[in-house]
């Protein structure tokens, strides 16, 4: 039975990995599209703008032939810009919810009320860090629902340009030494440490989970 249970648990973790990989892929695609808009589209529009400014000067000097040449070049730049914009729109598959909304919804939809305090913007985090943080919170809340009947659940998230820290605390523990909880936490630790982060646990009258992640991915 124990072996079957562990296999089922591993299957669940593999499924979570697959779902996380899909979400991470979407986040990285959004970053790629942003780079297209900033680099390629921005370059073409800037070139078209400068060419049109030159066109005005040529017309003032009555240099019609050169002006027509500048007009043709500007049209090419603008057509390239439209192509880049269409490409970005076709590729854009942005989620309806922002990362901050997805994070808050985890707590709002939880079985028990959560006192959440957040400073900093999740959107600025590296996509891989966003997804590991989201998955860690989801795993932690699942453990609370399974192994506690809390009167208090408290969460603090602090994000800076270099470090992201999460503290999640609850009371009402059924069994502080539950093996299943330990397995879930070990799995979480492995994923956090893969990004250069750390997981700490403090057990007393409450169960406190402390997660530290780099705000930018440090994985080799």
Question: How would you characterize this protein structure?
Answer:
- With 220 residues, this protein is an alpha+beta fold.
- It has 2 domains: 1-94; 96-214, Heat Shock Protein 90 (2-Layer Sandwich), CATH 3.30.565.10.
- It is 61% helix and 15% strand.
- The protein has helices spanning 2-60, 64-91, 99-108, 127-147, 179-194, and strands at 115-119, 153-159, 163-170, 198-203, 207-214.
- A 5-stranded mixed β-sheet has the order 1-2-3-5-4.
- α4 links the parallel β1 (115-119) and β2.
- It is rod-shaped and about 85 Å long.
The percent range for helix content is 55-70%
Q: What's the gyration radius in Å? A: 25 Å
Give the number of DSSP strands.
Answer: 5
pLDDT averaged over residues? 78
Tell me the major beta sheet: 5 strands, mixed
CATH architecture grouping of the largest domain: 2-Layer Sandwich
* Strand order in space, largest sheet: 1-2-3-5-4
% residues in beta strands: 15-25%
- Give the N-to-C terminal Cα separation: 38 Å
Q: Please, how many helices? A: 5
Shape call: rod-shaped
The fold-level CATH name of the largest domain is: Heat Shock Protein 90
Q: What series of H and E elements makes up the topology?
A: HHHEHEEHEE
CATH class of the largest domain: Alpha Beta
CATH homologous superfamily heading of the largest domain: Histidine kinase-like ATPase, C-terminal domain
Number of domains: 2
**Which spans of ≥5 residues are poorly predicted at pLDDT below 50?**
none
Tell me the structural class.
Answer: alpha+beta
